[in-house]
Amino acid sequence: MRKVISFCLICLCLNAVGQADSTRNKRLNTVITVSAIGYGASVIALSQLWYKDSGFTSFHFFNDNSQWNQMDKAGHFFTTYQLSRVGDNVLRWSGVEGKKAALWGSIIGTAILIPIKILDGFSYGDMIANLAGSAFYLGQDLLRNEQRIKAKYSFHQTSLAKVSPDLLGDGLAQEFIKDYNGQTYWLSFDVHAFAKKSKSPK
């Protein structure tokens, strides 16, 4: 039931984009259809990857703000920032006007991660990080029409995953998401954009 609710949520967001825009052309219809199908498939795949062994519990609120040294919050911020960026770019490609594409891209960026909170237990800290990532993208777009500060991510495998594969993942695909010990997050500043007269490369 939770999968159906979360799937419907993203479909409503995408449909709202289409209805709000007068350019309901083939590209936009294609984006809505492919996104809805891809989103449903990814929710099912993620639920199988993450909860295959542990199973689901009933919906509950969960405060994990003291865990993982906030690395999971950085992951939520980074993910919604990138999903907002991709959503914005795809909507612009499909004919949605710039500011509207940025707004709906950011809304979709947050909406995509809501099912994880439904599956995982609702964490206030995670939702705040989700909203912050999308707002960080949208704010820069509305203020400057460019991303002068970008969220970045890298990953390397660690020996700790072998010690606790149930918790940190078994194999690269799972460790990439679960093993916070191998994740690095940072902000990349475009120096040239801040100081156009400098000799810094674009």
How would you portray this structure in words?
With 202 residues, this protein is mostly helical. The protein has two domains: 146 residues, no CATH class; 55 residues, no CATH class. It has nine helices and two strands. A two-stranded antiparallel sheet has the order 1-2. Helix 3 packs antiparallel against helix 4. The longest helix is centred in the first third of the chain and has 26 residues. The relative contact order is 0.13. The mean pLDDT is 81.
**Which range best describes the helical content: under 10%, 10-25%, 25-40%, 40-55%, 55-70% or over 70%?**
55-70%
How many DSSP-defined strands? 2
Through-space gap between termini: 48 Å
Structural domains: how many: 2
- Kindly report the spatial arrangement of strands forming the biggest sheet: 1-2
Number of helices, counting only DSSP H or I runs of 4 residues or more: 9
Q: Which structural class should the secondary elements be placed in?
A: mainly alpha
Provide tags for this entry.
mainly alpha; two-stranded antiparallel sheet; 202 residues; 7% strand; 2 strands
Question: How does the SSE layout of this entry go?
Answer:
Layout: H1 2-20, H2 26-51, H3 71-93, H4 98-120, H5 124-144, E1 149-155, H6 160-163, H7 165-168, H8 172-178, E2 183-189, H9 191-194
Antiparallel strand pairs: 1-2
